C-alpha cells in the first residue's frame, strides 16, 4: 500500500492530528515486530481481550511517528495521529478500499481443514507465472485478513487469501472486504461447530464468502454437495460450481485404486481422464491435490505442467510432524488442535508407518456442546479400531469415559501428571501419537520423547537479526534501500531461512555470490529481487530463467550475458547491475572503460538497475584516506556514467562497516552483511547490536584426571594436579580449527571460560573445568555466543568472524528461533 494520511482519513472517515501529507506504506500492529519505522504507522488494535494502546509509548520510542488509535494521547510530542472510532473497523474499511482498487485476480479459501496447505501449494504453483501476494501464515481472521490484504502492491497480479470464521455472521463482514473471483471451500469438519446451531448453518455461513465468485471449487462430501446445489446454487446462479473429492460423483475425482502403488493415480476431470505420479497416497493429501488440479486447470495449465508443479511442491509443513523418538520409537506430534476429523486424519496417518505396536496420548475434545457420551462413543470406536497397545487419556472429561477404551488405558488430570508417571519413557519400539487440544500443551511430551540427535547446534536468533537490521536502518535516511548479503549460505547460517525471514520483513534486495544460490532461493519461493555478484559464464541462461539480476563487471560478461538474453527471447529490458572498480582490484569497470561502456549500454536492451562499488577497508580507521579516495572515484565515475546513460539507477557502495563509518555516502541503497549478525569492529556500535549466532553443545562425560596422567592424542596435556576434565562432542570436523587446542582457545560454561586441553580430535575435544563449580554431564557448553563471543573465538583462531562462520561444518544442525 502507499497512501498519504489524508487519503487514509478520507477513505475511512477518520480524524487527523498532525501532518496530513506523510506517506504510509506499512501498518504494524505488533509492537515487537516492527521492521522499519519509515513510512510505517502503528495501529493500536482494541479487541475485547486486549488493547494495543498500551504499546504506543514503546513504538514511539522505537521511532514510529504515525499512530492510528481510538484515543489521542497529547503527552507524546511530534506524533501524527489518525483517530478512529473503532480500530478493527478502520482496518477492515481500509483493506476493502485497497483490495477493491487493486484489480487483482483473487483466490479466496475457506473451510475447516487444509486452508493453509492449499494456500501454500497454490502459491508455490502459481507465483512463477503470476506475481502473487498471499496471507502470511494463517492470517485469516477479522484482523488477519485485512492486514493480509494491505500487503497488496502494484506489482501483484494474483492474491491468495485464507478466510477463517468461528462464529455466526462473521463471514458477511469478511466478504464485504474481500470478494474472491475464484472460491475454494476445503474440507468442513467439526471445528467451531459448537458455536453454530447445526453443521448446515456452519457450511452456509462459510459459503457466504463466495457470493460474487465466478467459480467455486468445493470439497464435495455428500452433505456439502447437497447444500451447495440445493441452497447456494439457486441464490448465486452465475457462479460456476466445480466439486472435487475421492467420491466419483464429483467433477474432479480419482478413478484408480489409490492403495495400488504400482499404478499411477488416474484423475477424472469432468470427461477427461489422465494419470499423475503422486507419492503421498493418504486420502487427505490426495483430496487436496484434486483441489489444486482444479484451480491449475482453471488457469489453463496443461497436464504436463500440472505434473511438473506437483513434483516441485515442497512437502508443505503437514500438520502432522513425525520425529525419531528415544528407544526406537516414532513420535507423531499433532498437538496443534483436536476435533473428530483431525483425529480421524491422524489415525489414518499412523497406518503409513511400519510399526506393529502403537500408543496414543489423547486429551479432552474441547468446544463440543453435543452429548458427551455420544462424542466419546465415537472417539473410542475410532480408537479401538486401531488396536493401540496403551492409551493415555488426559483431562477430566475424557477420563470419565475411560472404560470405553479397550486397550490398556490410563487417565490423568493434566499433562504434568502423565510426565510424572514415567509411563511414556518406558515405551519401546512403537509409534506414539500425541493428539491433543492446544490448551493441554502436550507438545511438552514431544520434548521428552524426542531422540536428541543434535546435541551440537548452531542456533540463529532471528529476533536479534531483525534488531541489528533495524539498528543499521536507524542510522540511514528513511528512503535508503537495503540489500542483505546472503551469499555463501548466508555466511554459513542458511540462506533460505534467513532470506525468507528478511523477505517477510520487506528487505529490498538480496545478494548472493553464485547463480546456484539464487536458484535455490527462487525454488523455495523467495520473490525479492536477487543480485548475483559473480555470475559464471555457463550459467547465464539460468540467471534469466530464474529472474535473477547479474552483476556486470567487464565487457566480456556484458557481451556474453546479452547474447544469452537475446537467445532466451526475453523481450523487455533485462535488469543488470554495473560494478565499478574503485581501488579494491577485484572486479569492475575502470575509469578508461566508461565511455565505451555507456555506448554499449545505450545500444542494447538492458536496464541498469544499479551502479555500485565495494570498499576494501571501511572497517579500518587508519585507511580512512584510502577509503575516501575510493568514495571519490565512485562519486565521479558513477555520476559520469549516469550522465551518459541518461537515467538514474540506484547507487550503492557501503557494506556493514561502511554504514556505520561512512553514513554520508549511503546513496540510494546499502549492502548489509556481517552487521546483521551483530558484529562490528567498533565497541560503541557493537554495544548496540545483539549476537545472532550461538554455537552450543553439551558435555558428554566428565572425568577426574590424576596428577601425571595425560589427555587426548599425543599426550599434549599432562595434569600436574588432580584435574576435572569434560569431553564435548565437537571437533575439527565441525569447523573448530585444530590450532586452538592446547589452551589457545576456551569455551563457555555457566558464564565461565573453560580452556581446551590437549589436541582437538575429529569429533570431540576435552576442556578443563577444574575451576568451575557444579558442572554436570549433559550441561550446556557455549562454543561462542556471549562468552566467549564470536569475535573472541575468531581471535583464538587468528582469523576474522566471517571465516569462523563460513567454516562451521554443514553437519552441525542449524536451528532458528524467533518469538
Ligand atoms: C559480502 C559483501 C558485502 C557485505 O559485507 P559485510 O562486511 O559483511 O557487511 C557487501 N558488498 C559486497 C559486494 C559483498 O560481497
UniProtKB/TrEMBL annotation:
Substrate binds at residues 586, 762. GO terms for biological process: D-alanine biosynthetic process. One of its GO terms (molecular function) is acid-amino acid ligase activity. InterPro entries: Ala_racemase, Ala_racemase/Decarboxylase_C, Ala_racemase_C, Ala_racemase_N, Mur-like_cat_sf, Mur_ligase_C_dom_sf, Mur_ligase_cen, MurE/MurF_N. Keywords: Isomerase, Ligase, Pyridoxal phosphate. SUPFAM superfamilies: Alanine racemase C-terminal domain-like, MurD-like peptide ligases, catalytic domain, MurD-like peptide ligases, peptide-binding domain, MurE/MurF N-terminal domain, PLP-binding barrel. Signal peptide: none annotated. GO terms for cellular component: cytosol. The keyword S-adenosyl-L-methionine does not apply. CDD domains: PLPDE_III_AR. The keyword Isomerase applies. It is an enzyme of class 5 (isomerase). Pathway: Amino-acid biosynthesis; D-alanine biosynthesis; D-alanine from L-alanine: step 1/1. It comes from the Bacteria. It catalyses: L-alanine = D-alanine. The active site is at residues 487, 713. Its EC number is 5.1.1.1. The modification N6-(pyridoxal phosphate)lysine is found at residue 487. Belongs to the alanine racemase family. HAMAP family: Ala_racemase. This is Alanine racemase.
